[in-house]
């Protein structure tokens, strides 16, 4: 079992998220790669309009001729990121829930539509992404949206609630124990942002050294570098959401006690993870 039946420390949560990704990487990484590729394609026109220079995609200092478009680019990037993490969160929640019940579904079963609630997860992902775009345009409010609404996809899959109630329950869970879940989620994102920047620039340098051409290779090599880094970062953050959701329920709702008692009676079923509607 990757997620122990007890409240965890922050370090244990991060370890459990990485372990969950390693155990289910065959399903999660290809999906993350496709979504990350779509993201790069969607952001490319905005980067061009904002004159954001690869590989870091920063504006052309000191002129800042397209600052308003660059601000929209940042907001769009934040929106696509949380949308992708939420979409992957549906899969990681499914994997985490199965592990908690003593199961290890193969990749094909994890991706099977039956029981995955993919439609509800997609609705939640779109709503969270749109909310993040508006919040990011407003400035610092983005971290509130990221911290409060990030557990909505696991709530849809594991708690078996609809999109509207899932968003509300996500905010409630995130606020419990002194905003513990919200703080850990923001901390995980900031930590991985630093890792992504370091790895993204490093990957670009490595790819650039292997390329044959000159300036015409800069844009595609940059996009490929960020695609590779995000292919790992996005499912890792989605795994953190899944384990954080379950751990918060153990900490504040006694889910670990419920599962332990059911295990002793031999009555562990997926229905135990649901909540009253």
Topology at a glance:
Elements: H1 10-49, H2 67-100, H3 107-110, H4 118-138, H5 142-149, H6 152-159, H7 163-210, H8 218-253, H9 255-265
Helix pairs in contact: 1-2, 1-8, 2-4, 2-6, 2-8, 4-5, 4-6, 4-7, 5-7, 6-7, 7-8
What does this structure look like?
- With about 280 residues, the chain is mainly α.
- It has one domain.
- It has 9 helices and no strands.
- It has helices at about 10-50, 65-100, 105-110, 120-140, 140-150, 150-160, 165-210, 220-255, 255-265.
- Helix 1 (about 10-50) runs antiparallel to helix 2.
- The radius of gyration is 19 Å and the shape is globular.
- The mean pLDDT is about 85.
Uncertain segments are none
- The CA-CA distance between the termini, in Å, is 28 Å
Q: Radius of gyration, Cα only, in angstroms?
A: 19 Å
Largest sheet: none
| Percentage of β-strand residues | under 5%
Please give the domain count: 1
General form: globular
Number of helices: 9
In round numbers, the mean pLDDT is 86
Entry keywords:
single chain, 277 residues, 76% helix, mainly alpha
Can you describe this structure in just a few lines?
This protein is 76% helix and 0% strand. The protein contains 9 helices and no strands.
């Amino acid at each position: 079992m990757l997620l122990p039946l007890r409240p965890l420390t922050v370090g244990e949560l991060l370890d459990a998220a990485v372990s969950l990704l390693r155990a289910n990487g065959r399903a999660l990484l290809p999906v993350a790669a496709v979504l990350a590729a779509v993201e790069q394609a969607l952001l490319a026109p905005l980067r061009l309009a904002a004159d954001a220079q690869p590989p870091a995609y920063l504006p052309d200092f000191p002129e800042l001729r397209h600052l308003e478009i660059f601000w929209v680019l940042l907001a769009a990037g934040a929106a696509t990121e949380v949308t992708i993490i939420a979409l992957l969160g549906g899969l990681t929640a499914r994997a985490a829930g199965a592990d908690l019940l003593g199961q290890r579904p193969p990749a094909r079963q994890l991706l099977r539509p039956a029981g995955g609630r993919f439609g509800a997860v997609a609705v939640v992902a779109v709503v969270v992404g749109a909310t993040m775009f508006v919040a990011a345009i407003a400035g610092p409010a983005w971290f509130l949206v990221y911290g409060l609404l990030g557990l909505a996809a696991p709530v849809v899959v594991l708690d078996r609630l609809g999109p509207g109630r899932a968003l509300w329950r996500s905010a409630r869970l995130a606020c419990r124990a002194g905003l513990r879940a919200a703080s850990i989620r923001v901390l995980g994102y900031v930590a991985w942002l630093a890792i992504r920047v370091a790895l993204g620039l490093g990957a670009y340098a490595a790819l650039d050294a292997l390329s044959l051409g000159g300036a015409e290779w800069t844009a595609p090599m940059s996009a490929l570098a960020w695609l590779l880094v995000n292919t790992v970062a996005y499912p890792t953050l989605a795994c953190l959401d899944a384990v954080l959701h379950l751990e918060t329920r153990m900490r504040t709702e006694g889910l670990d006690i419920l599962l332990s008692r059911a295990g002793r009676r031999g009555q562990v079923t997926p229905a135990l993870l649901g909540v009253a509607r």
